Amino acid sequence: TSQIGDGDVFIAKFSGSGARKWATYYGGSKDDIGYGITTDQSGNMFVTGETSSTSGIASSGAYHTSIGGTSDAFVAKILNASVNGIEETIGAKSNLIIYPNPTSSALTISGLNEKSASTIEVYDMTGRLISTEKYPLASSVSLNLQGPQGIYLLRITQGSTLSQFRVIKQ
């Protein structure tokens, strides 16, 4: 949502009529250049490019976590490209409410099933898992959204029901 390095990759999604649905930046501490972008059948985006950034690109567990010269290639996966803060549910219709959205850090998740434990996973838009929290038998929980400003995916599992939500951290 804001430029981080000297130059970042700009990514946007448009409706069929050409109206911008959302836009974001991707990059690290220095220059980053996007060369290509595509989507898969699930709506995930894959961005390729070149980086001279020494931080903010590689995720934990990557094959190389640091730059190997003056610049390196990158491939970034951005989870389901329908980033708009609107509830997206897999399986049964969800009764969950996430607020405030956008947020500065703290979120409240209400409407959880009190008869089933809940697992809440938070992913950044590159697909990197930020946190996993387990909540036993609660109808409402508070979650502190870690990380910088940007768009995040919440995956909430209750029994066999998986609900996904996009949230914006300002």
Structural class: mainly beta
| Uncertain segments | 81-93
Distance between the termini: 8 Å
Percent in helix: under 10%
**Order of adjacent strands in the largest pleated sheet:** 6-13-12-9-10
What's the order of the H and E elements?
Answer: EEEEEEEEEEEEE
Note the overall shape. globular
Estimated share of beta-strand residues = over 45%
Radius of gyration: 17 Å
**Number of separate strands:** 13
Mean of all residue-level pLDDT scores:
78
Biggest sheet architecture: 5 strands, antiparallel
Number of helices: 0
List keywords for this structure.
170 residues, mainly beta, 3-stranded antiparallel β-sheet
Task: Tell me what you see in this structure.
The protein is mainly beta and 170 residues long. 0% of the residues lie in helices and 49% in strands. It is globular and about 55 Å long. Residues 81-93 have low confidence and may be disordered.
